[in-house]
Amino acid sequence: MEVLYTVVLGAALILFFCFFKFPYFLQDCRFMRKMLVVRSKRMKFREKTPFYSVLDCFLDVVKKQPHKPFILYEDQVHTYLQVDQASNKVAQALQLHAGSTVALLLENGPVLVWMWLGLFKLGCPVSMLNTNIRTKSLLHCFRCCGASVLIAGAEHREAVCEVLPDLLAEDVRVYILGDAGGVEGLHSLTEKIQQSPNTPVPHTLRDNITMSSTGLFIYTSGTTGLPKATLIPQDKIWGAPFFPYLTGVKADDVLYIPLPLYHGAGLLIGLAGAIERGITVVLRRKFSVSQFWKDCRKYDVTAFQYIGEVMRYLCNTPKTDTDRQHKVRLAIGNGLRADVWQEFQRRFGSVDIQEFYAASDGILSFINYVGKVGAVGRVNFYQKKMFPHALIQYDAEREEPVRDREGRCVPVPTGETGLLVVKITKLAPFRGYAGNPEQTEKKRLRDVFEKGDVYFNSGDLMRMDNEDFIYFQDRIGDTFRWKGENVATMEVSDVMTMLEFIEDCNVYGVEVPGHEGRIGMAAVTLKEGREFEAKEAFIHVCNFLPVYARPRFIRILESMELTGTFKQVKVTLVKEGFNPEVISQPLYVLQESSHSYVPLTHSDYSMIIAGQTCF
Length: 615
Ligand SMILES: *[C@@H]1O[C@H](CO)[C@@H](O)[C@H](O)[C@H]1NC(C)=O
Hints:
Number of strands: 30
Helix content: 25-40%
Radius of gyration: 25 Å
Mean pLDDT: 91
Distance between the termini: 72 Å
Low-confidence stretches: none
Bound molecules: 2-acetamido-2-deoxy-beta-D-glucopyranose
Number of helices: 20
């Protein structure tokens, strides 16, 4: 009896000890099992010829559950079968050669979905253009994916007409989903699609597709210059659609995607992820904070996708009695700050939040599957073994990793912030950016820990605690995020220096209390004897830059400080922010109501700091 008692007590003590030492043991096991399931599925896809793509997965869902709603949009319900047939019509209407790239300039909605699937049915790679871009940027993005066809929504007619002469000169076929209005070189596609049969095109069109065939181009604002087209091969497309499964989305969930579908998050994690689960999605043209919960109630949404901004906007709305009247049980996404996380759950009820870290040009992702507030992920044993990665010391002044005497990088101790680098291997390949070998090379970091090794430079500063939770700290280099979009500082600089009174320009993001990301600021020097022309500057930035990239603040400098290697010094400027107490030189703020930049006053500043200014 006494022996048994001792054994039981011993076992209890061991369990108790394990629970304290490894509190996440069960969750880790469950998650690793899921990762292995995903891995074995992807192995199977790879063995198939032609490759088993997201489209094949879609067609299988259509066979299995043709009448299940796939897309809910406004008051429309589109079943899987209906979307299949609509995409057949697109494929029949276009009849393009397999392999020719097509660029889409479309807002969120069912049309985008069947365009995308229809083009995949023809074996055509699809380039997803950001719908905010215009003129020079639009042309650049279109060109760098090597597309020969552009299909634009009717609402983008003006943007297309601006670049039409250039496109036509390059023999591009330009379609508009609406009335072409007699514009030469602009073709209407709407009628053509309506008149086409809804029967499938031969699947032999896709016979040559392998795991390494180009499937998609998604744009990211990289470290410098204009946006870059990230080339996503068929196999890498599958790197995202399993996120819903990994984060616990179930077959009977209704997933709300309020994010733009031209980003990897909305298109691949949201939409393709929904196809992988065979579930219903709710789409909306643009995210609307006032409609969000109304939509959730209207469509019986049970899960939604977010970025940090979405959650903050939701928390910033006035409290109502209906805050907890919804069926949402799960939110998946990234960029959620710890304070907003807690506020969201306090206010809207016990929604399970699954935060993750992923980038469309990245090769490693993390998921915070235990819901630890503030962390973007948990690094488990499997990832450590299969995807060697490290956080290394980074010199913010010189904007490069710290190297030791042998020229090797230096890992940071646990708990300290370092730059995330991931070893490029066969299992974690980095294909780079389309038509941009220079930018591609910039993301490759060589001789990191050994001579000849190559790592992917994520550009993200992260911190890992002693429990293997990983936290996002900041972005480095020449981009910052604002309103969920990456802003490339060089692109903004290029636009600013087109103004003839500006001599030099240094663009960076400054933090504003109560907002995610950073708000754009341009420090400029003026040409000798010239004044700052506020009105002209305003008109110019509105013409050339999307709303999120326009510098909110402009600061006039006497001279531009450069580093020893002639790089512009940003660190001090970023630190000084936009505080008129600190900055003695002229400081302007963009004011939409007066269609100009106006001097920033102390009271403007206080209002911004107090969160009383809308951006
Ligand atoms: C597939 O490749 C073969 C051999 O290169 C070629 O003859 C055929 O036209 C290709 N099929 C398609 C649909 O591109």
